[in-house]
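Ticket #4471: structure export looks truncated?
Reporter: QA, pipeline team
Priority: medium

Steps to reproduce: submit the single chain below to the structure queue and open the exported record.
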Amino acid sequence: MKTALAPAFSLSAEERTPTRPAAWLRVLHGCQPALAWAGWLHVALLLGCLLLWPLDERTVTGLNVWIKPAKFSLSGLLYLWTMAWLLADVPAAGQRSARRIGRLVALSMVVEMGCIVGQAARGTTSHFNLGSAFDGAVFQLMGVFILLNTAAIVWALGLVFRHRPFGSAAWVWGIRLGLLVFLLGSVVGGVMAQRLAHTVGAADGGAGLPVLGWSTRHGDLRAAHFLGLHALQALPLAGWLLGRRVAGRGAQTLALAAVAGLYAGAVGWLFWHAMQGLPLF
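Actual output as written to the record:
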């Protein structure tokens, strides 16, 4: 039996698939401590935002000021711990690079969340805010670290092609294509940054879906951005399921490729639909 903090690449197949949350967290901390601890910071931020939500009546773009940082805290937590889990399956030869990628991603997310929470505390927006020199500097700082995070994902994509992760063919291709479609979602984020807005056909704000805030009257690029980024969870999960149900490496690869193609097509359709100025619902 390996020690509690043994890296996943040194564990048996059974040990790399822990069934208890405590074992799962030990794998994360053992392989990717930076991502693991950055995730715990996001847990603390999420709890703080949920506590402040009913106590603070201020609104930004029509939503309570703490809704956005709460959403980003939850999304960031999923992203950080997903990256830690996926990089844990990189074999020993690639683990030095995997840890460096983890540190870059953790740093990028901590800085971005610091900007989002700080601007929420000030009662203003964090993204696309050029209202003052300070607001513009905060937005530019976020942009720098978003680019750093994107570069880390490109590095991770190259890494998982160079060093095949452990697991079935469907799982491996779920990781690879999940990272690729994540980058597609990042491109949508770049379009929003270039436009300095996420709504198409009107100013940001106004009538929107509860909590999410996506416009119900105009196009909103956030839907495509959301779906693209969460390919990082959806496609590896699809790969894990296909690996258990489909026999043969070739059949698994083709099945996962079909799922990934449909998923990427949905991201593309949502982007096109929003750019026409049409609401999702």
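Status: closed, not a bug. The export was complete when the record was re-opened. Leaving a note from the reviewer for reference: The CA atoms of residues 118 and 133 lie 15 Å apart.
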